[in-house]
Write a structure and sequence with these properties.
Number of helices: 15
Distance between the termini: 52 Å
CATH class of one domain: Mainly Alpha
Number of strands: 0
Shape: globular
Strand content: under 5%
Largest sheet: none
Structural class: mainly alpha
Order of helices and strands: HHHHHHHHHHHHHHH
Radius of gyration: 21 Å
Helix content: over 70%
CATH superfamily of one domain: Tetratricopeptide repeat domain
Length: 253
């Protein structure tokens, strides 16, 4: 017997997401059923759970197909995820140029994640011609939409005067906003500024939060930066960053 849900139930995307936390297998069945009824949000969700292997067997090529179906129906996050798949080679051959096509479409429609991902390619010249001014504009727009990671990177451009006039005071404000919005890199940036101003106790609290939620790549890069800190309390954190990196399966090299 197949899984059955009433039409009004499958349309409730928030309920499906909540169910994923509590009953991932049952949620996956509901998402498959809803996707089969052409519920676009469920089609995008199906792509995500197939990509993650959450409640369902991981299948990256099939995830790519469902993202494409949802994107063609106008789902912006699915369009962004198509870009992610092509950028990282999830279910396909990695192709930064193809990723840029999808990020650009999502960005043009005003999706914060699309703006952020497109800006990342523009800033590094991957898949597109390097364009720091356009990257800055995309980060700024995403930051103003409340995108935490873009807040941090917009702050970095302002601090360094990259493609704009340097404005450290405004940069530091964006770092603080990024930190408070939950981005671990923004938390590290904010903590670094606080430390430079002698506000070590506050800096330590933000360094600790970044340590708690940061991923392996972040910890690998950030840990060594703490070793050169003037305050010994901050230097001690470098060892803890390295220890946490190893816990996450990362390498110090």
């Amino acid at each position: 017997m197949g899984f059955e849900m009433r039409r009004e139930e499958v349309l409730d995307a928030d309920s499906l997401r909540a169910m994923l936390d509590e009953q991932p297998g049952r949620a996956a069945q509901a998402i498959v059923a809803a996707a089969g009824q052409n519920v676009v949000e469920a089609q995008a969700l199906l792509g995500q759970i197939l990509l993650d292997g959450r409640g369902i067997a991981q299948d990256q090529p099939l995830a790519l197909r469902w993202f494409a179906i949802a994107a063609d129906a106008g789902h912006l996050m699915a369009r962004n995820m198509l870009g992610r798949c092509h950028e990282h080679g999830w279910g396909c051959t990695a192709d930064a140029q193809e990723a840029a096509v999808h990020y650009r479409l999502a960005a043009a429609a005003g999706l914060d994640w699309g703006l952020y991902n497109y800006a990342n390619l523009l800033s590094t010249g991957r898949g597109v011609a390097q364009d720091q001014e356009l990257a800055l504009a995309c980060y700024r727009k995403a930051a103003n939409l409340g995108h935490a990671k873009s807040m941090n990177l917009y702050g970095r451009y302002l601090e360094q005067g990259l493609a704009c006039k340097a404005n450290p005071a405004e940069a530091f404000d964006w770092y603080e906003r990024s930190a408070e919005a939950g981005d671990f890199r923004g938390q590290f940036s904010h903590a670094s500024v606080l430390a430079s101003k002698g506000q070590v106790d506050l800096a330590l609290a933000w360094f600790e939060e970044a340590l708690r939620i940061g991923n392996a790549n972040f910890l690998r890069v950030s840990g060594p930066q703490l070793e050169s800190a003037g305050d010994p309390r901050i230097k001690v954190l470098a060892v803890r960053y390295q220890a946490r990196l190893l816990e996450l399966g990362g390498s110090l090299a």
